[in-house]
Specification:
mainly alpha, flat, cell membrane, membrane, T2SS_GspF_dom, Type II secretion system F family protein, transmembrane
Length: 195
C-alpha cells in the first residue's frame, strides 16, 4: 500500500510541469519568438476587437506629442493589429522616403480595414488640419461599433436561450398546471353525471 502511494507520488512529480521563472510568469502566454507553443497559442487566440481603436488613440497621442506622421505611424505599427500594422509601416516608410501623402497611404486605402485611416490621413495632408483629432474620432467610432456588435450579440443570445428554456418549462407547466386542472374538471363532470 505504501509502495503504491510512493510510486504514484513519483509519477506525479515526473508529470508536473517545471516551475516558471518570475519573468515567464510576468510575460504570461507571450512566450519567446521561437517558441512553437506560443505560435500555436497565437493562432487560437481571438483578436481583440478594440485593438484598432487603441492603435488609433496611440497614433493620436504620438501626433499630439509632436512626432511627425511618419515617425508616429512607425511607432504605432509595432503594437497595432495585423492589417493596420502593415498599412502604418508601409505608409511610414514611404513618408520617410519623401513620398506625398496620396502615394504613401494608397495601399491603406485599398484595404477595407484601413480605408478610413487613409482617407483621414490624405485629407489632413491636403488641408493641413490636425490628424490627431481625426484619429481620436476614428477610435471613438470603432469603440461605438464594437459596443453595438456586443449589444446585438447579447440580444441574440437572449432570443436563442428562450428555445431551450421553453423546452424545459413547457412540459413542467403542462404536467403540473394543465393536466391537474383537466383531470379535476373531468372527474367532476364524469362523477356529477352531467354527461
Amino acid at each position: 500500500m505504501i509502495w503504491g502511494a510512493v510510486l504514484l507520488l513519483a509519477c506525479a512529480v515526473l508529470v508536473l510541469p517545471a516551475p516558471r521563472s518570475p519573468v515567464q510568469r510576468l510575460l504570461g502566454d507571450a512566450g519567446g519568438a521561437g517558441d512553437p507553443a506560443a505560435a500555436a497559442d497565437d493562432s487560437t487566440r481571438r483578436e481583440d476587437p478594440l485593438a484598432t481603436a487603441a492603435a488609433f488613440d496611440l497614433l493620436a497621442a504620438c501626433l499630439r506629442a509632436g512626432l511627425p506622421v511618419a515617425t508616429a505611424a512607425k511607432a504605432v505599427s509595432r503594437s497595432a493589429p495585423a492589417p493596420l500594422s502593415e498599412s502604418l509601416r508601409r505608409a511610414a516608410d514611404l513618408l520617410a522616403l519623401g513620398a506625398d501623402a496620396a502615394a504613401a497611404w494608397e495601399a491603406a486605402a485599398s484595404d477595407p480595414a484601413t480605408e478610413s485611416l487613409a482617407r483621414m490621413a490624405r485629407r489632413s495632408a491636403a488641408s493641413g488640419s490636425s490628424l490627431a483629432g481625426s484619429m481620436t474620432e476614428l477610435a471613438a467610432d470603432g469603440r461605438t461599433q464594437v459596443e453595438h456588435l456586443a449589444a446585438a450579440s447579447a440580444e441574440r443570445a437572449g432570443v436563442l436561450i428562450s428555445g431551450p428554456l421553453g423546452l424545459c418549462f413547457l412540459p413542467a407547466f403542462i404536467c403540473l398546471g394543465i393536466i391537474p386542472v383537466v383531470v379535476g374538471l373531468a372527474s367532476r363532470v364524469l362523477d356529477g353525471g352531467l354527461l
